[in-house]
Amino acid sequence: MKIDLTDTTSARINTGLIDARRAIGTPAVGMVLTLVIVTDEGSAYDALKAAHEASREHPSRILAVIKRPGRSPRERAGARLDAEVVVGDEAGTGETVVLRMHGELANHAESVVLPLLLPDAPVVCWWPDQAPEKAGTDPLGRLAQRRITDASSAEDPVGSLVVRADGYTPGDTDLAWTRLTPWRSMLAAALDQKHSTITAAAVEGEAYNASTELLALWLADRLGVEVERKVSDGPGITAVRLVTGDGDICLDRSDGRLAELSVPGQPDRHVALKRRETAELIAEELRRLDPDDIYRATVQYGVKHLVSTARSGKGTDDGGPTAAARATPPAAKKAASGGKAATSK
């Protein structure tokens, strides 16, 4: 069921939600959190689609905030709130409110969102596109226990990692980090099978790819070794190589779907490592609402070592990848054993 409200208020929207639930015969509220999506009109459809799919695992009240401040003084003066209330199959397993804020009201979105939050339930704020430099101090971000950004959608994905590190607040996370969960899990499992001292590592992936840079930083931080960054044609991350005294441990994924894992002394095997949709990433992040300390340590560790990686890294003349940059750990660190590369998810 869908209800359109023009020039409305938060109180009328709450009344519309109650009326919509009664109309479809589900007056009880069984939602576990409020998901606030801050986006623009062009990206709203894809963001809402992903949120609705994720809500099948995490029934949520979804509030999509679309700001339209206007360009002229007259447009900015005409503050108005329009809303769409959606309950039922079109809203996944929860309910959705699309908030279009016009004029000066767009600068005070938190005053509209606050009365619409589920009582005594966690709040998660997600910026699918351009996020504030400090999500934790943003007026909407302050309402949330968990704040999700996506460095991959920024104009400068690698440079935005520095922004994320400088503005980090406990509860922040990024979908560029979430995309690494299968890679980190697979590498940790491989190192648990082969207890060898790691002496060096290399990460291969597309230029301007924030996830590739984060994976290199994670390995450098957790293993205490030099990590070489190589640029490939992608898609995304294509290979990770860990150098040990017994031989190289290699996880190679050239097609974005199936990877080959090579461990010294064991037969090569294929493992599923497909690139995941946004809905899967959001669903994963909603499973835990506590601060991700491993993400914090990774994004704050030596980010400046890799800022120029994607900007300057290009293929060699013969089309092969070249070392674009190196993440070097502090001299005091020693090469760690494989068991140190534990994942956080």
From TrEMBL:
Under InterPro entries, the record lists:
G6PDH_assembly_OpcA, OpcA_G6PD_C, OpcA_G6PD_N
Glucose-6-phosphate dehydrogenase assembly protein OpcA N-terminal domain sequence ranges: 51-164
Q: Where is the composition biased (Low complexity)?
A: 319-345
Name all Glucose-6-phosphate dehydrogenase assembly protein OpcA C-terminal domain ranges: 170-298
Name the Pfam families on file.
OpcA_G6PD_assem, OpcA_G6PD_C
Region Disordered, as annotated, extends over 309-345
What PANTHER family does this protein's entry cite?
OXPP CYCLE PROTEIN OPCA-RELATED
Name of the protein = OpcA, an allosteric effector of glucose-6-phosphate dehydrogenase, actinobacterial
| Species annotation | Actinacidiphila cocklensis
What lineage is this protein's organism placed in? Bacteria, Bacillati, Actinomycetota, Actinomycetes, Kitasatosporales
